[in-house]
Amino acid sequence: MTSRERWTVYPLLFLAIGLALRAATIPPADLKVDSLEAGRVVCGEIVVTSDDGTKLVHIGRVKGGGGGRIEISDRTGTEAVAIGTGPEGREGSVEFFDAEGTTTHLFDAKTLEPATP
Asked: What is the DSSP string of the chain?
């Protein structure tokens, strides 16, 4: 093999080996596992769904900024309870919804009496 052939073949060989190893070592973007144990998980949101794909629990950020919110739905996917903060401030709130998903009761820092020591 001449020097010129080596300068052509070896870089292509190393490129092919590198691409093969990269594909084998980097997992796909969507990872599906039956069980996961971790000391800490950092993410934008967590969604728990039923077997048919209905969203049962949603933990994430408040729409339009603000803090966090936990939304719990019934088996049909209609919201039942939501706990979170308002988009403008730090006040916490608890919302209860009826069967249609309309807010029936809202308890927040403005509507509750201050706690006594």
From this structure: --HHHHHHHHHHHHHHHHHHHHHHHSPPSS---S----S----S-EEEE-TT--EEEEEEEPTTSSSEEEEEE-TTS-EEEEEEE-SSSS-EEEEEE-TTS-EEEEEETTTSPPPP-
C-alpha–C-alpha distance, residues 95 and 105, integer Å? 6
For the segment 83-93, what is each residue's pLDDT rounded down to a tens digit? Answer: 988 666 677 88
Identify the helix (H) or strand (E) that includes residue 49.
Answer: strand 46-49
pLDDT tens profile 48-77: 999 898 999 999 887 766 788 899 999 888
Report domain extents, the chain: 46-108
Global pTM value: 0.62
